[in-house]
Structure formats: C-alpha cells, structure tokens
Design brief:
Layout (H helix, E strand, L loop, with lengths): L27 E2 L6 H9 L9 H10 L1 H9 L2 E2 L5 H18 L8 E5 L11 H20 L7 H27 L7 H19 L5 H28 L6 E5 L1
Antiparallel strand pairs: 1-2, 3-4
Helix pairs in contact: 1-4, 2-3, 2-6, 3-6, 3-7, 4-6, 5-6, 5-8, 6-7, 7-8
Length: 249
C-alpha cells in the first residue's frame, strides 16, 4: 500500500526538512498529500497567519500557476494565501462591486423565475454563480486532465486559485474601465471563462505552445458545457424543469 506521506524535502526550496517548518525558507509542510479535510480546512481559514499578501499570490498565479498550486499540493502551507483566504477576497471584492457598481457579476447576472418555494433559498442568483462555476471548473479539469492522476480535491484547490485570481483581477479591471468607457459586459464573461481554462491548461499541461493552450481551452469549454447540461438534466428529474434561466449582460 502506497504511503500518504510526502518526501522530506521542502516543496518550495528543496531544502531537507527536519521538522514541520523549513529551516531555509520557513515554509510550513504538513508532510502529506491534499485530501478533502484540507479542502474544508482551507475554505474555513481566515486572514490569520499570512506570510505573503493577496497581491503577491495573484501575481504568482498569473506568472507561474503550476508552481503556486504544486506548493500547496505538496503540503506547503502559508507561503502563499490559502484557498480559503482567496475565496474570502473574492467575496469581499464582489460584495463591494455589487454594493457600489453593479449587481451583475463579471458582466452577467443569473435570473431565475418559476422556482418552487422550497428551492428559492438555495437558488439565489449571486450565490448560484459562486456555488456552481467554481466546482464545475474543478470537475471539468478533473475529467479533461484525468491522465495527470490528480485527485478531485487537488483539482478543486487548483480551481480555487485560478478562479479567485481572475475573478478579482477582472472585477477590479472592469470596474475601472467602466468609469471611462462604455464597453460590452459580455466581453468580461468571455474573458473570464477563457482565462480560467487557459490557466488551467498552463497548470496541468507540460506543453505551453499557444496552439496547445487554445486547443485545450476550447475542449475544456465543451466539457464544461456538457457537465452543465447534465446537471440541468438532474434538475429536471427533481422537478425544477419549469424554472426559467436567463443571463443578462
């Protein structure tokens, strides 16, 4: 039976570990692989024990998504912002955006009508966006890059970093642009989905040639759409078939 323990070298600087913290770069290592307990623990974490700021983490995800995510996969903690802290900042930025700028999130807003009374609390349009897009992108990468032999929790962690980075960047960028220009909000939707899948390709693919990234992006979007259709098929089975879904831009 294969051990769940990881190698005793620091995942950040490769220095040999002699305890929970690296004596070279002071990164903490759990010494084990990512599992569902780590996912829930990361999502529950707050703003404490931060050694790298949110801006540094975002820039590192944009520059080197593979390195950033692999540090977390390998057991490294607190070198970058945790997935829970990333989600916190997404909620904070989107909350400020909705309060001060626009009710649309990243260029569009889901509107549901004819939802049964029992489901109305769950199908809040804004919560629906966060609650579905993030796990769907993780599921998409898990299906599409199944040969990488990464677990679903590991794909979820990768999706959190990429989703959060581009949700924050594009929300701030589009809000600044809206002060000076009148632009089409659907372009933000297209840019958001494209960047998520392009960066997912950068994370899981060893080949980063533009044609490879574009091909992987297109195919991932197709898988994403298929998963959405399957989920809505399940909705039909549970009696939500008379719900009207609309996306306003």
């Amino acid at each position: 039976m294969r051990s769940n323990r990881l190698k005793v070298n620091c995942s950040n600087c490769s220095f040999q570990l002699k305890g929970a913290y690296c004596s070279n770069c002071v990164q903490k290592s759990t010494g084990r692989k990512t599992n569902w307990l780590d996912v829930f623990g990361a999502l529950a974490s707050g703003l404490l024990s931060m050694e790298r700021g949110i801006l540094a983490t975002i820039l590192e995800v944009i520059r080197k998504p593979k390195r950033t995510v692999e540090i977390y996969w390998s057991g490294g903690r607190f070198y970058y912002q945790s997935p829970g802290q990333m989600i916190f900042f997404v909620i904070l930025i989107l909350g400020i955006h909705i309060l001060l700028v626009d009710s649309r999130i990243l260029g569009f807003q889901v509107q549901l009508s004819n939802v049964p009374e029992a489901y109305r609390g769950f199908f809040n349009p804004q919560i629906l966006f966060i609650a579905l897009v993030l796990p769907f992108t993780a599921l998409t990468s898990w299906v599409y890059f199944y040969r990488k032999k990464r677990t679903l929790p590991e794909h979820f962690i990768g999706a959190v970093y990429i989703f959060s980075t581009w949700a924050i960047v594009l929300t701030i960028f589009s809000d600044i642009l809206s002060l000076f220009f009148d632009f089409r909000p659907e372009l933000i939707v297209l840019a958001f989905l494209s960047l998520i899948f392009i960066w997912t390709s950068r994370l899981y693919s060893n080949r980063t040639a533009p044609i490879i990234l574009v091909g992987n992006t297109v195919l991932q979007i197709l898988v994403f759409i298929i998963i959405l259709l399957l989920i809505f098929g399940v909705f039909l089975l549970f009696g939500i078939g008379n719900t009207n879904y609309s996306f306003n831009t």
